[in-house]
Specification:
With 137 residues, this protein is α+β, with helices and mostly antiparallel strands. The chain is 46% helix and 21% strand. The chain has one domain: Band 7 domain (Tetrahydropterin Synthase, Chain A, 2-Layer Sandwich), CATH 3.30.479. Strands 1, 2, 3 and 4 form a four-stranded antiparallel sheet that branches. Strand 2 and strand 3 form a beta hairpin. Helix 3 packs antiparallel against helix 5. The radius of gyration is 16 Å and the shape is elongated.
Length: 137
């Protein structure tokens, strides 16, 4: 049992170091979203332990935002954005988020939280969330 725990700790440290968990993120102001138009802000990868399991979640998220100004605001508020994301993601267990419905509910929760952090609404702030990577291990 002790070997399994040490192995798990080693794996998590290795994963975090490979991901370069520097906390840096970037906003892509002006990037157009597949023909429909719209600005985006891509966040660096998040890796969090899930709430009630020995499992973890790795996720890469891109935010669709109402304007280039909001994308810049995401950069300005990045520490609070990342903090909010980590709190939400780490509060979930794998059963809650492995279904399509669970992911849709997570999107709504993230959008509401980030708009609260940015002091904006869904119409003039973060309008959608896109998961580029979503891995539960």
């Amino acid at each position: 049992m002790k070997i399994k725990k040490i192995s798990s700790i080693f794996f998590n440290i290795l994963l975090i170091s490979l991901l370069g968990f520097s906390g840096l993120s970037f906003a892509n102001s002006g990037a157009k979203e597949g023909g429909a138009g719209g600005d985006t802000a891509k966040l660096e990868a998040f890796t969090v332990n899930l709430a009630n399991t020995d499992r973890y979640l790795q996720v890469v998220v891109t935010l669709k935002v109402a304007s280039a100004e909001v994308a810049e605001q995401v950069k300005t508020y990045m520490p609070m954005v990342r903090h909010g994301m980590i709190l939400i993601l780490s509060s979930k267990d794998d059963a809650q988020i492995k279904t399509a419905e669970g992911k849709r509910e997570l999107i709504v929760e993230i959008r509401e939280k980030l708009n609260k952090v940015l002091k904006l609404t869904e119409h003039n702030g973060v309008t959608d969330i896109f998961f580029e990577t979503f891995v539960i291990q």
